[in-house]
């Protein structure tokens, strides 16, 4: 899969149905000693109820997950949240294993319009991801805000992190912004998980992707997937 932009086409090669993706995470990690019952899933997706389906698909394979979700799929659980997760992982065989899934989302309407989805029980399409559509429109006006707003905490954190990553005058479209948020969230999760590897001899797997909502099905685009085993910090790529 070359890029998220390519993955937006209906049935794009390299994308997976939700249950197909969840099953693949099991198959990809089995050779590395991960199996249901000996690993804790950490799932970071947007708060949107549309993401319940991917959470359910992963839970069906790995069991109940530790929730690291925030607005747009960003990761803000911090070291305290990570410390909690660290104490929840199974470890009967002397190893703790974590399966991290980080997935923002994007809608593609039936007519191909990007950023829109028709929700059950509604007549008209609405934006997905709503937070990213709103932020993209704001960035397109040239506005660059980075103050923390306690009445809008997660949105202001999202805006601040994105603005800090943009080059001067750079205005991403929605697809680029979605992929940027995926990368920021994955990097933050990898940074937090690095402490697990060093302090708790953990095995850590990362699946970094985007859920694409088409009018008739959801598909998963995987941008990056790897596993590190406790004795070294080498990222072993996971391929289908
Ligand atoms: Zn969203």
Topology of this structure?
Blueprint: H1 4-7, E1 16-17, H2 18-29, E2 40-45, H3 52-62, E3 66-67, H4 78-86, E4 96-103, E5 105-107, E6 116-117, E7 126-127, H5 130-140, H6 153-165, H7 174-200, E8 202-213, E9 218-228, E10 236-237
Parallel strand pairs: 2-3, 2-4, 4-8, 5-8
Antiparallel strand pairs: 1-9, 6-7, 8-9, 9-10
Helix pairs in contact: 2-3, 4-7
Bound molecules: zinc ion (ZN).
Q: Work out the strand percent.
A: 15-25%
Query: In CATH, what is the homologous superfamily?
Result: Carbonic anhydrase
Helix content: 25-40%
CATH architecture: 3-Layer(aba) Sandwich
The third-level CATH topology is Beta-carbonic Anhydrase, Chain A
SSE arrangement, N to C: HEHEHEHEEEEHHHEEE
CATH top-level class: Alpha Beta
Question: Whole-number radius of gyration?
Answer: 18 Å
Gross morphology: globular
List how many beta strands DSSP finds.
10
Tally of individual domains = 1
Low-confidence stretches: none
Structure ligands: zinc ion
How many H/I helical runs?
7
| Main sheet summary | 8 strands, mixed
